[in-house]
């Protein structure tokens, strides 16, 4: 949703007698712009309240002579209104139309007296079309207020807002930084900043410009690196830029061919025929056989950034917070589209449970995921990976949920050779010095991860013994390793028997 659309939506809520609007955000700057832009057309006054300043006429309120701090002063707080209850009692009885923006107010509603007074003011405002706007970074309203409030979803900044931010920063910097960006460079810079708040975008652009006195095309990479840090620090997602994705996948020719065909679904020709864009794939199979690498390969083959959702990060001890975490994660993905969203070990967050351990949380998350997967309109391709089929809800395996369900089996001889070559070359080893046929035969029943472990262990031994890595050292490590295909033979046989009947092989 563009910022202009957000303004129109906010205005509609105000004039349709919604007396409580709740906004979960850390971007108070954008809330201020939203409210003042909306109220300029509505010809409504704006008041702000915080526990530090009390209630005052907003500097940007229409008709306010203190607008933008032109006199270098801020308005004087109205009476003794720093206390939440005193402020609400002051509002009780006011009849003129206005917007009252109450900052960080959700926490004060835990007091039953404050909550009761707040409801009475809201009831009065519903008749004169005044509105209470409450903001907080994470809000949990008491039950009665939760039913009365409307939640306004303030999306992360749109490309238009980011373009404006770049222009604003460069105007403020003036002669301190030289700008040498083509229109294509500016577009790449905006794409790199998607998923950041305006404040974060402003800071990273200013830093890139001031670090060497210029803003040029190579600064896009610096912005991308900072964005990866910002997303990781958010605690829900990890970000892998397309340029940094070096995933190499041995074998999986069936999956790679499917990806080439599926990419056509994002083309203008597909849209012309009203074909839906591909939604995603589910990859199930043996541990260590390349499911995670396959997710990275999807992003690399399509030259898209990769977002990884770690299921364990979603869970929160407070009721409703886990669902909010999921909403924040998919909102971030929607903001950054087109993107590949990788949900690792999906059975751990949305799998079947008895319902006793998590109070039905896994089922609620699963329901939210299915709804979002069916209704999403942005170009987000979901790659879900799973190890344990028994924990996956039957609804997830039904045809139509995903575009395809792939099964990853133990690598065959050709795939084992490709895996050996990839990892030996990655460790600066000359392939010609090894007897690959012998190694391929010796690693039958090994997963890709187990083959990589063998090479690492043999190379450590070679370094310790101060000798070159050779076939004999690798064979020694191979014979010393018990692969999962032996250690968990029965479980693996059941998985392979079930999957081979129902799913498509990646080969």
Description:
Belongs to the AAA ATPase family. Highly divergent. It holds the Pfam family AAA. Residues 277-412 form the AAA+ ATPase domain. Keywords: ATP-binding, Nucleotide-binding. GO terms for molecular function: ATP binding; ATP hydrolysis activity. The protein is α/β, with parallel strands linked by helices. The chain has four domains: 3-151, P-loop containing nucleotide triphosphate hydrolases (Rossmann fold), CATH 3.40.50.300; 159-233, Orthogonal Bundle (Helicase, Ruva Protein, domain 3); 244-248 and 259-407, Rossmann fold (3-Layer(aba) Sandwich), CATH 3.40.50; 413-487, Helicase, Ruva Protein, domain 3, CATH 1.10.8. It has 22 helices and 15 strands. The protein has helices at residues 3-15, 28-42, 84-91, 112-128, 143-148, 159-173, 183-193, 198-212, 219-233, 253-262, 268-272, 291-302, 321-336, 346-350, 361-375, 394-397, 413-426, 436-442, 448-465, 471-479, 484-487, 489-502, and strands at 20-24, 45-50, 54-57, 98-103, 131-136, 150-151, 178-180, 214-216, 237-240, 280-285, 306-310, 339-344, 380-386, 404-408, 504-505. The strands form three sheets. A seven-stranded mixed β-sheet has the order 9-11-12-13-10-14-15, with helices on both faces. A six-stranded mixed β-sheet has the order 3-2-4-5-1-6, with helices on both faces. A two-stranded parallel sheet has the order 7-8. Helix 1 (3-15) crosses helix 2 (28-42), helix 3 (84-91) packs parallel to helix 4 and helix 8 packs antiparallel against helix 9. It is elongated, with a radius of gyration of 28 Å. Mean pLDDT is 86; it is low at 64-72.
């Amino acid at each position: 949703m563009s910022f202009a659309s957000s303004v129109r939506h906010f205005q509609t809520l105000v004039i349709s007698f919604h007396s409580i609007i709740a906004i979960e955000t850390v971007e108070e700057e954008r809330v201020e712009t939203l409210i003042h832009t909306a109220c300029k057309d509505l010809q409504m006054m704006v008041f702000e309240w915080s526990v530090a300043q009390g209630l005052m006429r907003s500097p940007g309120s229409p008709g306010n002579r203190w607008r933008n701090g032109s006199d270098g002063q801020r308005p004087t707080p109205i009476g003794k209104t720093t206390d939440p209850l005193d402020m609400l009692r002051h509002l009780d009885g006011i009849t003129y139309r206005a917007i009252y923006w109450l900052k960080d107010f959700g926490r004060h509603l835990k007091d039953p007296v404050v909550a009761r007074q707040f409801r009475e003011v809201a009831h009065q405002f519903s008749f004169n079309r005044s509105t209470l706007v409450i903001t907080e970074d994470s809000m949990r309203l008491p039950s009665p207020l939760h039913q009365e409030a409307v939640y306004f979803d303030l999306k992360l900044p749109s490309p238009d807002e980011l373009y404006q931010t770049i222009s604003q920063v460069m105007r403020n910097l003036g002669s301190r930084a030289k700008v040498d960006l083509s229109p294509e460079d500016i577009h790449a810079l905006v794409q790199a900043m998607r998923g950041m708040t305006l404040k974060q975008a402003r800071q990273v652009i200013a830093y890139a410009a001031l670090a060497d006195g210029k803003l040029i095309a190579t600064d896009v990479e610096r912005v991308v690196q900072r964005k990866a840090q910002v997303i990781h620090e958010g605690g829900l997602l990890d970000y892998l830029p397309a340029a940094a994705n070096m995933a190499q996948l041995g074998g999986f020719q069936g999956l790679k061919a499917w990806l080439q065909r599926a990419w056509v679904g994002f083309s203008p020709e597909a849209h012309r025929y009203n074909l839906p864009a591909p939604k995603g794939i589910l990859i199930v199979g043996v541990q260590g056989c390349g499911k995670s690498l396959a997710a990275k390969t999807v992003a690399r083959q399509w030259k898209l950034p990769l977002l990884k959702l770690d299921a364990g990060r979603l869970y929160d001890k407070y009721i409703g917070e886990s669902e909010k975490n999921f909403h924040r994660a998919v909102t971030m993905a929607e903001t950054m589209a087109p993107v590949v969203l990788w949900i690792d070990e999906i059975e751990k967050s949305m799998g079947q449970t008895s319902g006793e351990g998590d109070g039905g949380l896994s089922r609620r998350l699963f329901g939210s995921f299915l709804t979002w997967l069916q209704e999403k309109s942005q170009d987000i391709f979901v790659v879900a990976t799973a190890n344990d089929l028994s924990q996956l809800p039957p609804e997830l395996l039904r045809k139509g949920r995903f575009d395809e369900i792939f099964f990853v089996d133990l690598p065959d001889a050709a795939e084992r050779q490709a895996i050996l070559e990839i990892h030996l070359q990655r460790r600066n080893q000359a392939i010609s010095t090894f007897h690959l046929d012998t190694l391929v035969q010796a690693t039958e029943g090994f997963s890709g991860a187990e083959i990589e472990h063998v090479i690492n262990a043999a190379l450590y031994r070679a370094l310790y013994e101060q000798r070159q890595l050779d076939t004999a050292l690798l064979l020694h490590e191979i014979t010393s390793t018990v692969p999962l295909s032996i250690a968990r033979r029965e479980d693996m046989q059941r998985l392979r028997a079930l999957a081979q009947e129902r799913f498509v092989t990646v080969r």
